[in-house]
Amino acid sequence: MNLLSNQLTMQRFCSSGLVRHFSEVLITLWRWRPRVKKNLGTTTTLLLFLPLLIATAFISSLWNSDTSNFSVHNISRNKTVIIVSRKPQNRPPKRITTPLNCVKNQTQTCPTNYPKTSQTQKSISDYSITPTSTCPDYFRWIHEDLSPWKVTGITRDMLERANQTAHFRLVLVNNKVYIHKYKQSIQTRDVFTIWGILQLLRKYPGRLPDLELMFDCDDRPVVLSRDYSGPNNKGPPPLFRYSGDRWTMDIVFPDWSFWGWAEININPWESLLRELKEGNNRRNWIDREPYAYWKGNPFVAETRRDLLTCNLSDKHDWNARLYVQDWILESKRGFQQSNLASQCAHRYKIYIEGYAWSVSEKYILACDSMTLLVKPYFHDFFIRYLQPLRHYWPIRDKDKCKSIKFAVDWGNTHKQKAQEIGRAASNFIQEELKMEYVYDYMFHLLNEYAKLLKFKPVAPDGAVEVCSETMACNANGSHKKFMMESLVKGPSITNPCTLPPPYEPKVLGAFYRRKLNAILQVQKWEDRYWESLKKQ
Ligand SMILES: *[C@@H]1O[C@H](CO)[C@@H](O)[C@H](O)[C@H]1NC(C)=O
Ligand SMILES: *[C@@H]1O[C@H](CO)[C@@H](O)[C@H](O)[C@H]1NC(C)=O
Ligand SMILES: *[C@@H]1O[C@H](CO)[C@@H](O)[C@H](O)[C@H]1NC(C)=O
Ligand SMILES: *[C@@H]1O[C@H](CO)[C@@H](O)[C@H](O)[C@H]1NC(C)=O
Ligand SMILES: *[C@@H]1O[C@H](CO)[C@@H](O)[C@H](O)[C@H]1NC(C)=O
Ligand SMILES: *[C@@H]1O[C@H](CO)[C@@H](O)[C@H](O)[C@H]1NC(C)=O
Questions:
Q1: Which one of 170, 195, 375, 477 has the lowest number of neighbouring Cβ atoms within 10 Å?
Q2: What contacts 27, CB < 8 A, 6 or more positions away?
């Protein structure tokens, strides 16, 4: 089945939707008639209510993209009509798959029958089975990240200036993707980032507007706010990357590892998330080692080498159990020692930044263990929403050992609370950072970004189109494996979640103050703890 015939099936399905829905409302009404009569006593009242009922049902059907999910329940004496959304039963939605058309012995080409934007937009919204829900709160930072261009928009000049450090330019025109590669990125970061965007297009075909963007795959943000604060500045260049900090304006985007990290054998996020959940069920929090665990590469940052001084030794036990990850050795052994799901064996897990933010963050938070978060300076796209004492325990950057020692002692004497913090973080990761939401985040970020563009995106001269076929069919080894595993099978049968509005500045200010207060609170407890030990 090719895309075009999929389109036709979808449209046929949809055109009958409203008709079917309406007859369903009438049937429901008819079924309810006797009960209504009993409740209200007279048929006259029923007749009075009937038009109101139909009108309400009809209006509700207009509001919602899926018209067949409503039934009218209970008409009580106080004249309230309750319309309840009903779970769809017996009628599984028809999933459409978009096959990957690999050709043998020929140059791989891209499909030519991409859906027209308007066509898919209509059919998908009619087709989707669940009423749209609001996206998680961390999506609100999309507005914050794009705020530097809110007034001015993004001009071509601003975009072109982002070429200085970019690894590639991505152009999306009429659903086709073109890549202009400027330079080699670390490992396969660029490959899997582009792959991720192509999967987004398979998930929501024809629903992304034309756009051009520059992507920098390195760790540290580079667009300094202070360079663009004066009155006559030319406007900051919009540059996408995986992490940002307080002093820069880079736009944060989900990192490559959501589609797999081939070099160190980390699976795509969707399957890894399942493994992590199973891993958590294998070992209860209370049965885990009552220490703080970390395993990683200490040679990428001073702060990590500093952390190693907290390891168990003849002189000290700071409650920390720290290990060096030797990736070269691990890769020779087939990565048996680095299975992430089996690393959830301690009640506390330390997260510490490397050269910038670290990909390990989401794996650590997913463990059901209480995360001890060493004061971070960088952020990815979701971490800003997480709160100290609710999702993690804050650890001082200086004096890490004392801070860790206290955190573990506190947790082992407040087991209930420590477990709750661990659980809150892993629930957040399992529920709000599942792959659907990662795609929805990309969807909204790119849509909002494209709204700001003041120029018409054009495919670069002589650029070659890139699609899932050109990337996956020619890949081999773990690249191929991860690509096939994270391949989006076909268009989504549900709409993306609804983007929440920006935070009011006051609300955002209060949010950050609450966060800071919680951190200060912990520091106070910590200082008191060490003072009381000194006195003894
Ligand atoms: C309808 O609502 C009334 C009052 O709230 C309740 O007593 C009654 O059981 C409900 N009937 C049905 C069928 O849910
Ligand atoms: C009207 O009835 C509904 C359901 O029976 C109930 O939930 C609601 O509180 C009632 N309202 C008033 C004002 O009594
Ligand atoms: C591909 O080409 C090779 C030689 O170029 C040939 O031996 C093989 O049969 C071809 N395979 C297909 C599926 O056409
Ligand atoms: C970036 O773009 C400017 C013009 O917009 C051009 O002069 C410069 O050569 C480009 N730099 C790179 C590294 O492509
Ligand atoms: C930390 O201490 C443990 C236990 O003594 C040891 O096995 C481990 O190798 C140490 N880690 C480092 C990085 O030295
Ligand atoms: C896989 O691809 C790489 C280059 O992309 C190539 O060097 C290597 O030989 C290929 N391996 C196999 C088994 O085809």
A1: 477
A2: none
